[in-house]
Amino acid sequence: MAEESRSGSTLTVLVALGINLGIAAMKAVAGVVTGSAAMLSEAGHSVADTCTEVFLLTALRRSRRPADARHPFGYGKERYFWSLIAAISIFVSGAVFAFAEGVRTLAGPAEEQARPLVGYVVLALAFALEAVSWVRAMQQVRAEAAEDGESVIGHLRTSDDPTVKTVLLEDSAALVGLLLAFAGLGLHQLTGSSTWDGVASLAIGALLAAVAYTMARANLGLLIGQQADRRLLSAVRRRLQEQPEVDFVVDVLSMNTGTNRVLFCARIDFSADLDSTELERAVVRIDSMLRTEFDELDEVFLEPVPRNDPEMRARVLARYGRVL
Fold it and tell me: Which segments does the entry list as coiled coil (predicted)?
């Protein structure tokens, strides 16, 4: 299942990369021909999206490397790092360029519009191509959401895979950006004022800045050590509590170490009737059971602790505000 998800993510990113590369070239030519700031901003938008796909492909490749002595928990978090770099790329190469074009148009002398039909044709073709990429990304998101029993919105909020989420977000922004460019081009032609072109360019810049912020914020939590999905943790806790050797699950700690990879630690008050050999066997059995039943658990640590230890209770209270 994990291999299918990875291959699906790679295909989704490759589709978006090919489409954005072609669209960027079309928009750049149309921007030069028409002299439209909004069209040039959209060219910058597509260049930023192309860079994003390159970063995402890098993330997919590097995050699959196996664990080694220097990185005992693997390289899964590289996917979050490169996705963060992609967000920065969108802001720097897309939003800043669009803002600059908008300001230049509004502050400079009035500009004549040339060959607007070329712009309309390119925007229509770009919209059709972007729609193909968007549909591909949406199909994968829907499939993953259905597999997890979630709505699409819920899945986008909780997913620890930034690649498909990023492609879907940037494709959605691309479709909106094309509509903004179309409006700027059309209003410029109707009114004869290049102000509308500049306003459309500023709107595209604001859109890209919002997308970059959303992407960066989503990856921030994953980079600094976000806990695993609460439904997974609840299910694991229930299985632990059901074991005959376990009296009480004192504390649970987890962290996403990559997409579908979770570091899991549990502090458990085992039955006082167990001797040291029985305790060791119980820990090994429970560890094996959890890894078998929950594919996401990449590393499992089980620590025997007394339930009423005051220091332990204080740490749990400081973290959660209550004893679990």
Answer: none
